[in-house]
Amino acid sequence: MALSVDTFFLNPEAQGTLQAQIQELIAAGILSGRFGVGDKLPSSRKLAKHLGVSRITVTLAYTELVANDYLSARGRSGYFVSDSAPVPPSYAPAPQHLRDSADQLDWQRHLTRSFTGGDTPRKPQDWRSYRYPFIYGQADETLFDHANWRLCALRALGQKDFAAMTGDYFDQDDPLLLEYISRHTLPRRGILARPEEILITLGAQNALWLTSELLLNRNRKAAIEDPCYYTLRDQLAHRRCKLDIIPVDDAGLPPDQIGDDTDVIFTTPSHQSPTTVTMPMARRKALLARARDIGAVVVEDDYEFEMSFGAAPSPALKSIDADGRVIYLGSFSKSLFPGLRLGYLVGSEAFIRQARALRANVLRHPPGHIQRTVAYFLSLGHYDAQIRRTARVLQERREVLEDAIAKHGLTKVRLGKHGASGGSSLWMEGPAHLDMGPVARSLRSKGVFIEPGAPFFSAPHQPLHYYRLGYSSIPASRIPAGIALLAEALRDAGD
Amino acid sequence: MALSVDTFFLNPEAQGTLQAQIQELIAAGILSGRFGVGDKLPSSRKLAKHLGVSRITVTLAYTELVANDYLSARGRSGYFVSDSAPVPPSYAPAPQHLRDSADQLDWQRHLTRSFTGGDTPRKPQDWRSYRYPFIYGQADETLFDHANWRLCALRALGQKDFAAMTGDYFDQDDPLLLEYISRHTLPRRGILARPEEILITLGAQNALWLTSELLLNRNRKAAIEDPCYYTLRDQLAHRRCKLDIIPVDDAGLPPDQIGDDTDVIFTTPSHQSPTTVTMPMARRKALLARARDIGAVVVEDDYEFEMSFGAAPSPALKSIDADGRVIYLGSFSKSLFPGLRLGYLVGSEAFIRQARALRANVLRHPPGHIQRTVAYFLSLGHYDAQIRRTARVLQERREVLEDAIAKHGLTKVRLGKHGASGGSSLWMEGPAHLDMGPVARSLRSKGVFIEPGAPFFSAPHQPLHYYRLGYSSIPASRIPAGIALLAEALRDAGD
């Protein structure tokens, strides 16, 4: 690669002759890894002009660097970083004169608060290297309709769509995507909403964040399910609102446990997260009635409704919401892939208008090209086909998983007659008094990834013996061996 | 299109016979625009099974709808939405039984605060339909390297990159993009930073938002330039921090005007926004010294450094920051396109770690496919070529614009010897006492779009006679006629 002359600057504070400074500059570039072996240096004429020094100064610096083996001269072709130049251990440091003195600030004092150290557990970036990845919520390349996705992306990259892809929407969204969600996606959940009642978000997590930011502060109270999606708890912690933590039973969130002073109720009626229980219709009605009685808003996180097999999906809570009290969250992360970062919020127009203004303030809008690609993928029918294919495969994996669990006598949490149809995970119970954290860690060395359940529970009474088995990224053929290793680890831990 | 049976739900609260309910359901779908002319209804057998009613009930409902001209029967092919079905005026309402009762909540009471009605002016979504769009910050399809962008996007869509594109990065970024920015982009600004000191953001606006969120609250004070980028003021208004509003002069932000109790200084040294003045080196040093004296953090928004022609870009303020006090914001919105929504933050590792945690909380990470596409576009050299091509064209437009302005005697704001090289806009001054708002509005009917300057100033002392002329989206050939119309409007307004 030719090194651009634009990346060369003399430090106005530097000591020493100009020639020495130029030598240091280049040596530092090589030692820091910025300049790689074989990279071509600018001509002495160009560099001299750029730095405002005489050409002979640059030539002398280059000659000296050749003598020191940093550079090699190739006749008329110019100067290159030498094959035998000192090699940096790995790319890292900037030159000493900046590095030593940098970060003299006490950031604790400058930051208004800390966002690190929340409840959200770190998942391994290298989960694909596990042989038995019972991980939840990642994409499986074997299930994804790569060919048609590429075609849709290409179409969205076409000249015709240039404006849609590249323009600044300010606070708006791709009208094609909004219309498709309004006309085709939401009706599948029994929801009828106009485009003005829909906001595209940067994934469902962003939708949750916008909602919490708009509806909660330190004087207000949120009711959350226990266990629940840990990142929701992190988000609410930053809003500093009061929390009403409500244990779920075998029909999900029990409405009669919700306190009178609750302002916002967060719930996952289709598949309670993480237990996967489905809330029956009678309880849904009771929940809405309770919310009406206490004047609370309900936030329905419908994070994986498409993954319903075994039984037809029940209509969303939002579909029986007669007074505009329910804010509905949808996501394409589970049905397409999480790296897409695309979800949506559905609610009353007055709420969506505010959510749109807040989103515009924070990030303007999700990238246009991605919105348009998804609009095509949906409207050409590829999405529905993908969902059907995925549901078939998940159902097969689920059956294999249930068999393996039964064979090894592992305990699936009892969820009543409503639980456990569809979804992409099982909620499991280890032996009481066993901490699944160390078990999960020891399993990693055997190539088995499982998620300990403790982080889903609200402190301080976190039970330690639950765990989650995701099956959206593990082939059915590997499930029995993975479960055998898990069963062995549980036996060992029990001894 | 075949209408999916999954979008049909009976309302459990509905009155009337099952047959009447089905008829209403379908009629409402047609009247609301959800079902279009020619759409095929599910077979009576399928719909009956799905709704749990007898097949004859569905058949009778269909027959009745045919009689009423909502549907037409095509022999054995089934039932379709009729050509002569009642047509909705435009797609809008949901069925009455939901619509009438929806939004019975007093959202004023439920929302913690309002985000609408800020200082950010609304720009027209249809600016491409203007013949003379002196709009700022939009993409020009004639300048964009569409072919290579498509190739990079395709490569990033390849099987090899599946994991990078689709995976959930949690709080991380694409390592390829981070490394490229670290090794090649930042060195052009004289900045040497490790990947741990860089965070990818959803555009520069998102970077500003994250920074404000981390460093400011109602007890702290921010110094901002006057005039400045209005959205920054909106963001700070929501942080409710104190403001020190400092008028810029012909060398940008004057350090000696910054109050002792300032915590964060926002500045745009390369091209002051919107005046375009470049801060000279002596003042940059004075600004850093002042920040050190009062213990303030400096936020450098380097929003369009690539658009420097006429003179080499000066190194960033961050490049002479010896103690890690400067937080640097970069963006690809101006050099690639704003719909990309990709920018980056550079700062001390302790700061970036917190910004990363906050970003993860709000939205996890910018979409993987977009990060990877940009990484390819950068590393294959297309970006540099694009910048050079764009700079050439902008320079030509600038010359045409300056000529037209001179010819018509319009007034460019005097910016001292340092101002006005490069960039993609001119900062203009109309006749004193003239409000450019109505002038800009009246020009729209003649196909001319200009931006009134008032929104850039902090209330209450907004001067009304400034305006901005962007030239990033208007061909050079149209500039003279557009400026002639502007000059005419100014003359008319002066009469």
Please describe what this structure looks like.
Chains A, B: This is HTH-type transcriptional regulatory protein GabR. Chains A, B: One of its GO terms (molecular function) is pyridoxal phosphate binding. Two copies of one chain form a homodimer. Helices cover 37% and strands 12% of the residues of chain A. Chain A has 495 residues and is α/β, with parallel strands linked by helices. The first copy, chain A, folds into three domains: 5-99, Winged helix-like DNA-binding domain superfamily/Winged helix DNA-binding domain (Arc Repressor Mutant, subunit A, Orthogonal Bundle), CATH 1.10.10.10; 127-140 and 386-494, Aspartate Aminotransferase, domain 1, CATH 3.90.1150.10; 146-383, Type I PLP-dependent aspartate aminotransferase-like (Major domain) (Aspartate Aminotransferase, domain 2, 3-Layer(aba) Sandwich), CATH 3.40.640.10. In chain A, the strands form four sheets. Chain A has a seven-stranded mixed sheet, sandwiched between helices. In chain A, strands 11-12-15-14 form a four-stranded antiparallel sheet, with helices on one face. The termini of chain A are far apart. Residues 89-101 of chain A have low confidence and may be disordered. At the A-B interface, helix 6, helix 7, helix 8, helix 9 and helix 10 of A face helix 6, helix 7, helix 8, helix 9 and helix 10 of B.
